[in-house]
Design brief:
heterodimer, A: about 220 residues, about 80% helix, B: mainly alpha, about 70% helix, about 0% strand
């Protein structure tokens, strides 16, 4: 293995990202889930910084800054306030038990790595080998959204998926154009606000945040 | 050749003699962190001396296996200690057994410990043996997965070659080793009866695993058992150091570096002991039925380490 130091650092960040994705999948408490989400944002921001520094792309500095502000500080703070006001710090209910979820997760990772290998062989970017991890973390966030019963972990899964997509964009094409990135950042922020309002509405109607209640169309 | 044998002897003796000190250091750190007065670094040695001076008591229905087991287990640990390159990578013994055989040596010791625990036929003994086997059959594959990652990087299962590859070549970041290291710490905690799985500080509680198995032993047998347990912890720490922080381990035949390597090892062991004490202080003991999940996580991290090696480091 003879890679430059920056590529090694990027690989390390990618590995950390995958580790955090698995930690989120195995987490039983909402509060820790939010801390993990903040960590994921921090790793993502650091990764973007390293890519920016090693490729000399100025706009990546801005997107690293936006990531830091939005995904490490604002969104976790918002979510934290939300769950404190909803008073649900510790209950995460899963549809399938956690060890089986982890096994499915491993299968997803193998699938993603296989998918990414032929693509990465033709790429020339410094970040090419991390595409597999980006796909894997998107799929793992999907899995988290599917297997969680309550609304808040689902939303965190959604935000984590956005992180994965952002990472995929950085690793394949050195990030999206600034306009797109700003648009997505705003969307995510507004989305979280709207989700917050939804949480209160769901709870007011059903006295719980279990979204399986939403499947009933008629009142009995 | 003589030099190699000497360094082998020195290293094995170091591991055997320093193991109780390491245990004492961990216990002291834990006591400091928990605001208790510390028992002193030398306490494990004093316990061992006391036990060796006592007369052994055996149950009437104890078979010869019960009497042989402590010596066998102690012997297994000495063998394991002599194949792990802690100070120098030129160990004549290391050619006798590679990383997979190391896991096998641990398994051998464990089988005899479980058999001896069931030999007397007390409830606590068989309870402890069953729990130990439950934990072990989950920890062993995880440990193998952890060892495979450095084996893949260095293209060899020999511990000597692994350490030589990782520690004495040009510095490189291996993300796969980060996974393996986390998984290794989890396996270390489980295999050495440390806190999330078992509590080493309690006797006679319904949750104990390791202590339940050695409950029937006394005097020199108990001393050997406890010494072997301390050595197992020490060996696990040196394996972790050799694979994940191998800097400072002297190359084969480099005699000038030996004192520095010894000092580096002691410093790393002190750090590892402190870290272990912190881990044990901040975490609570799990229910036994959560142990499969904990070790499943370790196995998963080991597999992830191998997968990331294939993706990122080739």
């Amino acid at each position: 293995m003879n890679l430059p130091l920056s590529a090694q650092l990027i690989n390390l960040m990618a590995a950390l990202l995958l580790l955090i994705a698995f930690a989120m999948l195995s987490q039983r408490r909402i509060l820790s889930l939010i801390y993990l989400f903040a960590w994921q944002g921090a790793v993502l921001s650091a990764n973007t910084l390293i890519v920016a520094w090693s490729t000399g792309q100025p706009h990546l500095y801005y997107s690293a800054l936006i990531t830091l502000a939005l995904k490490v500080i604002v969104l976790p703070w918002l979510l934290h306030r939300l769950i404190v006001r909803l008073d649900i710090e510790r209950d995460v209910e899963t549809m399938i038990n956690i060890p089986i979820t982890m096994l499915i997760g491993i299968a997803l990772v193998i699938f993603a790595f296989n998918l990414a290998l032929p693509i990465a062989q033709w790429a020339q970017t410094i970040t090419r080998s991390t595409l597999g991890i980006a796909i894997a973390s998107v799929l793992l966030s999907f899995l988290m959204m599917i297997t969680r019963r309550k609304a808040v972990p689902q939303v965190i899964g959604f935000l984590a998926m956005e992180n994965g997509l952002f990472f995929a964009a950085t690793s394949t094409t050195y990030g999206m154009p600034m306009v797109v990135e700003l648009g997505i950042a705003l969307d995510v922020l507004v989305g979280t606000f709207i989700f917050g309002i939804f949480f209160f509405q769901i709870r007011e109607t059903f006295d719980s945040l279990d979204i399986s209640n939403l499947e009933k169309l008629k009142e009995d | 050749m003589i030099e190699a044998v000497l360094s082998q002897l020195f290293q094995t003796l170091l591991a055997v003699l320093l193991a109780p000190l390491m245990l004492g250091w961990i216990n002291n750190c834990r006591a400091w962190l928990q605001n208790k007065s510390a028992p002193g670094l030398m306490q494990p040695y004093r316990t061992l001396r006391k036990l060796f001076h006592k007369d052994a008591v055996l149950a009437h229905n104890a078979s010869s296996l019960f009497r042989v087991a402590p010596y066998l287990i102690f012997g297994c640990m000495v063998l394991a200690a002599s194949i792990v390159p802690a100070i120098e990578t030129n160990l004549p013994f290391a050619y006798a057994a590679d990383a997979i055989a190391l896991v096998g040596v641990f398994a051998l010791a464990r089988v005899f410990m479980a058999l001896a625990a069931m030999d007397i036929g007390t409830a606590f003994g068989s309870l402890g043996a069953r729990r130990e086997m439950l934990v072990a059959f989950l920890a062993e594959p995880a440990l193998l997965m952890v060892l495979f990652t450095p084996a893949l990087i260095s293209q060899s299962t020999s511990l000597n070659t692994m350490v030589a590859t990782l520690g004495q070549r040009e510095f490189a970041l291996y993300p796969s080793l980060a996974y393996a290291a986390v998984a290794f710490v989890m396996v270390l905690l489980a295999e050495n009866a440390r806190i999330p799985i078992d509590n080493p500080a309690t006797h006679l509680e319904l949750t104990m695993i390791h202590e339940a198995m050695i409950l029937e032993y006394s005097a020199r047998h108990l001393a050997l058992m406890e010494w072997a347990a301390a050595m197992k912890l020490m060996i696990y720490c040196t394996v972790g150091i050799a694979l994940f922080a191998p800097w400072g381990i002297a190359a084969a035949g480099d005699w000038q570096l030996l004192p520095a390597a010894t000092i580096a090892l002691v410093a790393k062991l002190l750090l590892a002991g402190g870290g272990l004490a912190v881990l044990e202080t901040v975490s609570a003991k799990m229910r036994i039925f959560r142990a499969p999940e904990f070790l499943g996580m370790a196995f998963l991290l080991g597999v992830l380490g191998m997968l990331t090696h294939f993706l990122l480091e080739r």
